[in-house]
Amino acid sequence: MNEIIKAMEERRSIRKFKPEMPSKDDLNRIIEAGLYAANAKGRQATITVAVTNKELRDRLSAVNAKICGREEGFDPFYGAPAILIVLAEKEWANRVYDGSLVMGNMMLAAHSLNLGSIWIHRAKEEFELPEYQELLKEIGIEGEWEGIGHCAVGYVDGEYPKPAKRRDNRVFWVE
Ligand SMILES: Cc1cc2nc3c(=O)[nH]c(=O)nc-3n(C[C@H](O)[C@H](O)[C@H](O)COP(=O)(O)O)c2cc1C
Fold first, then answer.
1. Are the C-beta atoms of residues 118 and 157 closer than 8 Å to each other?
2. 174 C-alpha vs ligand 1 centroid, how far in Å?
3. 123 located within any domain
4. Separation CA 65–CA 13 (nearest Å)
5. Structural domain containing residue 63
6. Is the per-residue pLDDT at 156 higher than 90?
7. pLDDT digits (tens, 9 = 90+) for 63-92
8. Could you tell me the CATH number of the domain that includes residue 76?
9. What global pTM score does this model have?
């Protein structure tokens, strides 16, 4: 089968990762694949913040868990060591569409490199916090950005998940 379509059908969200960090080469390839996503008006209005620093990764995890009301100690990134955060220009009308395509490309690219990934939500709420806007400034990012999603990446721990059965009646042809 065509490799790209095969990857699209086989990729699954991973919820158990090994602690080992993927190589920077692989992470860069994933990020780069995201940068090539289709984007409205060719504006390229998204950025990606790649977090491999464990201390920051754990801080993000704790805030994310708090936002979704989970108990202390729950890791919403399921142990993934690398967190690729996609943000988009806050005033850009197509920010969510553009950012979502970046996320999709990155998850597929991770799969093609034999890495696991998952979209973890609540980036919007995180980057509404003043400390997160401050963090962006600290790392030299100016302007107003909206969080779109975290692509958590790492090596899959355990069995690869099987896809849920596709729901019926989701395709309508007019010929
Ligand atoms: C917009 C979006 C937000 C998601 N947020 C989370 C999340 O916060 N936590 C989580 O465990 N999975 C999250 N997921 C993963 C979905 O649960 C997963 O894609 C879905 O169950 C289908 O499974 P699959 O990706 O293996 O096909 C998110 C997926 C999307 C597209």
1. no
2. 31
3. yes
4. 18
5. 16-151
6. yes
7. 999 999 999 899 999 999 999 999 999 999
8. 3.40.109.10
9. 0.98
